[in-house]
Amino acid sequence: QGDNDYYRRFERHTVSDNKLTITNNAYKGLESMIGREIALDTFEDWAVLKPAVEYPWNKPDFGYFKTPIKNVIDRSFNGVSMFDSAIQLIKKADQQLGRLDWEYESGERSIIADVDAIPLANTAGYRTKPKERLVKTLDMSDGTSADKYHEFSPDLRGDGFIQGLNEYKRAIEENVGLAFGDLSNVQDVDKTATEVINSKKRKYNRVTAIQDNLKDCLTDLVEALAFYNGLTTAGYELTIDFHDSILTDEEGDRDQLRRDLSSGVLNAWEYRMRVYGEDEETAKANVPQAPAVMM
User: What is the residue-wise DSSP string for 148-167?
Assistant: First the structure.
């Protein structure tokens, strides 16, 4: 409020001795200073909050997701970004891309001509549009030479820069748990089938670890929602299922199931169980019935 007054409210959730304790504290200070504690009723929105309240609950009342990456920044349990360990590699890749851009820019073809050979040049030393990128004028004649033009057209070294950039991308992929080709051009370097499979397994393991953490977070979130709505004993059911296609071709497998269904090798209810994850009873009940034939 105003120019210098900063009001902050801290809400702390603590779990101990099978109790969840939620406390609220308000402070008035400066931008860089928390300041002194003030009453919650300083603001209408905060006045409805209790300074402290306890619940018979043995876990946090929220879901918390963090990546399956070890925190080496402050050694705490707080999560870190997926790319944290590859920050330096990403910087090097960015620098390498800058080198590639400069190689293309500095290698643009140009004609260096004597100022007397190209009339109407502007003060910047370039021919008027549209040739200003191509023709540059210089006072290079000694008054006797007939050579008024020089072509500047160096060979581009783009392939080397591109290969270096690709290597940085490949290093980033390996560092953060991605598969070959997610960032890099997988065709630039020959890889054996074993190397490709191993890179996909690396990504699969990383994605699986993320899903495990996400499942825990969603489970805790649903429990928190049930807790706040008084439904913790309502017997609710939560089902979380992740479909992965990193190591397997899900669409190809589904096409094969359709062919098996069409040929009669697979029953319709078996198809529903495999594709839609239904149990046998539900799958059989959901199989469309053939219309009756009138005789």
Answer: -EEEE-PPP-HHHHHHHHHH
